[in-house]
Known about the structure:
With about 140 residues, the protein is mostly helical. The protein is built from 5 helices and 3 strands; from the N terminus they run ααβαβαβα.
Amino acid sequence: MRxxxxxxxxxxxxxxxxxxxxxxxxxxxxxxxxxxxxEEAVKNVGGDALxxxxxxxxxxxxxxxxxxxxxxxGLEDPSGLSIHLFIGPEGGFTLDExxxxxxxxxxxxxxxxRILRAETAGLVAASAILYECGDL
Length: 136
């Protein structure tokens, strides 16, 4: 974000991240990366990270299954991992975006039978991740 308006948004987001971390007494302020295109974000996932993408067309692989290690070779406890969560826009991800993500080791999964709004899907998924990792 190179514009003045973009700089103000970034400052606001950083303040929200800091205040949320302080409120939760977590002690760790998560880093706030610069906004980037979906393709760039997918390519930037580190090799040791768990990357997941809720997708409404996925019917069998659940968030719980992935977090409990059923779909990850050699990983039984994902709680120590860096977890990258990709939440789609209203209307969801396109098939091309999902295929691109899969090519870059991002795991498509279902959040259940309900179609969630983009505004709530991230919160629901993050809450489930915290719960499964024993941090909620």
